[in-house]
User: Fold this.
Amino acid sequence: MTGPASAMKTWTAYGSKDEFYRELRSQLAGLLEGESDPIANAANTSALVYHALPDVNWVGFYFLKEGELVLGPFQGQPACVRIAIGKGACGTAAKSLQAVVVPDVHAFPGHIACDTASRSELVVPLVKNGVLLGVLDLDSPSVGRFDEADRAGCESLAAVFLDR
Assistant:
């Protein structure tokens, strides 16, 4: 495999985060092409993103089931299995249908500590045809790891996932 996932975990070789995410989006589209199973696609998406992005310790999905978020495919340490809508960063993104960038999880009201090593978080809601399907969740052991370029980049990756 060539591209971001096989390269050392850095985007400096791409000139900018925007270029890095464009390449990663293209690679994800190729990886998911022809496959419609959401679990298989979530597994490959989480693996690709986990191995491509520097300084992350968890990347995965929570899917909406019976009114709560339930753990789906992921890469990283074992995680919380169920998250209530409106609780923690994942539940907040699910309730608001807006991406949530948390620079310091310890300063986020209602933070759910699934992995004590996580210090910052980015959550992108998965909305298709106006319906919440779940969230894409990324954690980092570094405070302030995620910024607006990461938010936009991960939203574009979620769009590729949802297009399948």
Notes: The chain is about 35% helix and 25% strand.
